[in-house]
Amino acid sequence: MNRPIFGQSQRMVTEASQSYSFSRRAVALGAAQGVFGLALAGRMGWLSIVENAQYTLKSESNRVNTTPVPPRRGWIVDRHGTPIANNRTDFRVDIIPDRLENKGRVLGLLREILQLPPEQMDRIVTDLENAAGFQPVQVAQNLDWERFAAVSVRLPELPGVAPTRGFSRSYPTGAAVAHLTGYVGAASAEQFKQTRDPLMVTPGFKLGKDGLEKTLEHTLRGVAGQKRVEVTARGKIVAELATKPDEPGANARLTIDIGLQDYAARRLGTQSGSVVVLDCRTGEMLAMVSMPAYDPNSFSDGISHLEWKMLSDNDHVPLMNKVLQGLYPPGSTVKPMNGLALLHAGVSADERVFCSGALRVGTGIFHCHQKRGHGSLDLKNAIMQSCDIYFYEMVRRLGYDNVAPVARALGLGQKFDLPFSSQRFGTVPDSAWKQRKYQTSWTVADSLNASIGQGYVLTNPLQLGVMAARLASGRGLQPRILADHVHPAPALAVQPDHLALIHEAMWGVVNGGGTGGAARMLTPGIALAGKTGTAQVRRITMSERAGGVLKNGALPFKLRDHALFQGFAPHDNPRYAIAVVLEHGGHTVRNLDTPAIARDIMTYLFDKDRALASLAEAEPTWGGDIKTRMAAESAAYRVAAGAPPLAIGAQTELGATAPTDAPAVRAATAADVAASEALANSAAPGNTVAEDGSTETDPQ
Amino acid sequence: MSTRPANGLAFVPAPLAQLPWKILLLVLAIGCFDLLVLYSAAGGNIRPWALSQGIRFFVLLAGAIALSRIREETWGQIALPAYGILCVMLVLVELVGAVRGGGQRWLDVGFIRLQPSELMKPCIVLACAKFYDLLPPNETRRFGAIWPAALLILLPAALVMKQPDLGTALMITIGGVTVMFLAGVPLRLFIGGALALGAAIPLAINFVLHGYQKNRILVFLDPESDPLGIGYHISQSKIAIGSGGIFGKGFLNGTQSHLDYLPEGHTDFALATMMEEWGLIGGVLLILAFFVIVQWGLAAALQAQSRFARLTAAGLAATIFYYVSINMAMVMGMAPVVGVPLPLISNGGSSQMTFMLCLGILMSIDRSNRQTTRW
């Protein structure tokens, strides 16, 4: 058993050699211990010298818990400094999930104190389940002082509940500015993922979701402050450290006149319409109104599914910014522009065309809106009477390819440099365009349809406004909305006498027995020059024509004609240009038709008291002011949907869709374009849209 | 080298003069410094740790001085019986633990909770030293020199491993193996053993270690994989040490320990608590102090006359060294978290007691060295 196990162990091990071996090994052990001791000291040095900065930082981030304080958002103010969007104090209550104890009891108490509806409670429970520990979950915002105080007083019973005072966005003029300013809302999950900015998930922080609030986000947001507290590993706050205050965002000054904007919105009444007012000297936009609209105040607080559905279902498309996104055949409003194009091409203003009420081109018959015919007309009278035959005949001779460049020079089909995320800029067609788009050649019928602003021609209301301003000034004004933004406005390549003649004709439309007499201003010394228009959205068959064309009032809303107007005032020294478009307005109610609306809005600019007085008289007949009407509509819709009355502080259930990008808006725009193209494409000779032309049915 | 009292100190009684005063003062300094550390760890309070640790320290230090009066030969006589008793107690712990359910490490013997595994750390050194003392010198390189020692080591190590207490089992094993090495067992055996161990570690991780022990080793290899679980201990301790810098954040100014970010800041991770406030200076001085104690133990071993005394002194010095270095390596992220406290610094009686036991025996050997060198 005890045999040597290793080869050379025959060697005798004596006590002396053993002692020597021990000494050797003990010294070796001591040396190894010394080396290891040096290694330990080296590691200490590495941690506390080389990596000191890194660990100091980590130790600080352990010790100090930083919560962002949402910055106060910059105001949006009008040209005079009046706020269009500002901030108001907001009392809110949040829950810090980490500090919440006895969830059921706390939520029960909150429901009782804040009178939270069941749908709210469901949302809070869901949010709490998805919450990330220290990240506050919103319970309620926009609380009145009483309920806020009630929560504050009972805080000892409510561990984890945090009542805070913050700011929320306020739009004093409500729906009137909805499509101008857009609205704000909490950041989406994607936005947080992209930036990883904890500010994004701080309750009370809102960012621009649509309109100027979105495009001017960078200016308006400001820099978040920081609340710093010293906390233990268990989250207990030991001490409050110095707080870094927020830096409020910068204000954005617009060229808008908020008084005019509000007036225009109210003046549109129950119509689905849009108004643009521009300064003829600078291109500044004084008003940009699209009605009906949503209330950006309630949007910023968040709206319910039901409210969203109500807005989506509305055939007046309140979610769409019609000024930039609505596309309409401009109808007869382009006739002054056509006239300028004719003069530019060398047509004499005195040359006459005989209007018999219809014109045969090839196998097709094109009708004038005046069934009996206008008789013999020169250019000025053709514009005043809005004669279709004159323009059919002249454009047939000239070809629309000679008109289109002038239309573009006046702003039609153009995209403008404006801080809005979506603009639709329509079409100014010509033969090259048609070849490109449909691979078919341009026909005479196409020219004729285009000559009266129908067929393939599509414009948005802003372009009509710009056309009015450029006709008025003779300069290539660029519309602008930010007060600090200046565009050059070179003179247009038109002869002053041509322009003067067009001005005269437009004056005649309103003041000289033309089709726009309803727009005549009552303010002494100020005359409005303009042009009315009607855009048809349906085909009129031969059989209908035989039996008498249906009046708009007898048609379903969606089939009624669009009503348009563009003009400027004063006629002899243009100061303001205006465009009014009523979707399916159909010229059915005189004081809600385009000429009367344009007249009153212009009157506001020159004689505010008179304008306000006439509005005060008319508004009650439309069901009250905007707010009253919206409340009534909402209540009616809720009753119809069988929903309970509006819950207090209902939360947003909106996805990331901005109103102007909502499916309902796309559908509405697509419908306009489709109707227009269908009319144009069915333009076989003898059976064209122009059979009824762009009628100037004088309002009854 | 002789410590015969100088003329000026003639009035000092011989027993006192024979004590290694430099080492005792050094131990006293470490112990008092530890009281400051524990006072700060409790947020500037002598309760709950500093006071009890201080009382224990002085009682145990007195005990160590008393042990130093025991004759060196007596240790040789009690080595194997004590080993036998401790093994029986380890089995008893196992049985009581089995009855109560769950791992148990201590035995309640009425007036004190005895942790036999802790006492086994110095005892294994004594037992192995005694074994090689009994072994005739020419047997050293034979198989008979190996298997009994291996058995002596593996029995308690396996029992402790079963508790389960990886740190202590490890300490017992390397303490015994060190004595084997010093006794002159062929070197190639250790080299071969080290290689075998390297191969066995992956197997051990998979089959022998408990889930949490396995985790600790895996997390040690990649601390970032689990920053909020076990890796949390290591990363927070590194933050404490690293943020202390060269001079520390100052007494009572540690944030990692005071705000509870550092787990076990008064026990296993007391070094991090200390270094956060005292910095690199405090850490290096502590290493130096322990190094001096260990080297003093080794010097005593080299001077010892009997084989038993040589092996015991060197083995105990090595035990103190392993204690200190395993803990420091663990706290600084150089070794897995195995639950070995830092003697004299970590709050807790067991490690204090083991250290004082080692110190007492070392002083006893030192004393007999001096008595023998007197002539």
UniProtKB/TrEMBL annotation, chain A:
Alphabetical UniProt keywords: Carboxypeptidase, Cell inner membrane, Cell membrane, Cell shape, Cell wall biogenesis/degradation, Hydrolase, Membrane, Peptidoglycan synthesis, Protease, Transmembrane, Transmembrane helix
Signal sequence, start to end: none
Annotated Penicillin-binding protein dimerisation domain residues: 69-241
Membrane topology, as annotated: Single-pass membrane protein
Pfam families according to UniProt: PBP_dimer (PF03717), Transpeptidase (PF00905)
Region (Disordered): 678-700
InterPro entries in alphabetical order: Beta-lactam/transpept (IPR050515), Beta-lactam/transpept-like (IPR012338), PBP_dimer (IPR005311), PBP_dimer_sf (IPR036138), PCN-bd_Tpept (IPR001460), Penicillin-binding_protein_2 (IPR017790)
Subcellular location: Cell membrane; Membrane
Domain Penicillin-binding protein transpeptidase: 273-602
SUPFAM superfamilies according to UniProt: beta-lactamase/transpeptidase-like, Penicillin binding protein dimerisation domain
Entry superkingdom: Bacteria
Protein name from the UniProt record: Peptidoglycan glycosyltransferase
Species assigned in the record: Sphingomonas psychrolutea
Biological classification of the source: Bacteria, Pseudomonadati, Pseudomonadota, Alphaproteobacteria, Sphingomonadales
UniProtKB/TrEMBL annotation, chain B:
Protein name listed in UniProt: Peptidoglycan glycosyltransferase MrdB
Chief location: membrane
Topology in membrane: Multi-pass membrane protein
Catalytic activity annotation: [GlcNAc-(1->4)-Mur2Ac(oyl-L-Ala-gamma-D-Glu-L-Lys-D-Ala-D-Ala)](n)-di-trans,octa-cis-undecaprenyl diphosphate + beta-D-GlcNAc-(1->4)-Mur2Ac(oyl-L-Ala-gamma-D-Glu-L-Lys-D-Ala-D-Ala)-di-trans,octa-cis-undecaprenyl diphosphate = [GlcNAc-(1->4)-Mur2Ac(oyl-L-Ala-gamma-D-Glu-L-Lys-D-Ala-D-Ala)](n+1)-di-trans,octa-cis-undecaprenyl diphosphate + di-trans,octa-cis-undecaprenyl diphosphate + H(+)
Keywords, comma-separated and alphabetical: Cell inner membrane, Cell membrane, Cell shape, Cell wall biogenesis/degradation, Glycosyltransferase, Membrane, Peptidoglycan synthesis, Transferase, Transmembrane, Transmembrane helix
Listed InterPro entries: FtsW/RodA (IPR001182), RodA/MrdB (IPR011923)
Protein's job: Peptidoglycan polymerase that is essential for cell wall elongation.
Compartments, as annotated in UniProt: Cell inner membrane; Membrane
Record bears the keyword Protein biosynthesis: no
EC assignment: 2.4.99.28
Membrane-spanning ranges: 21-42, 48-68, 80-99, 142-160, 166-183, 190-212, 278-302, 314-338, 344-365
Keyword Glycosyltransferase among record annotations: yes
First-level EC class: transferase
Organism: Sphingomonas psychrolutea
Protein's pathway: Cell wall biogenesis; peptidoglycan biosynthesis
NCBIfam families reported for this sequence: rodA_shape (TIGR02210)
Family label: Belongs to the SEDS family. MrdB/RodA subfamily.
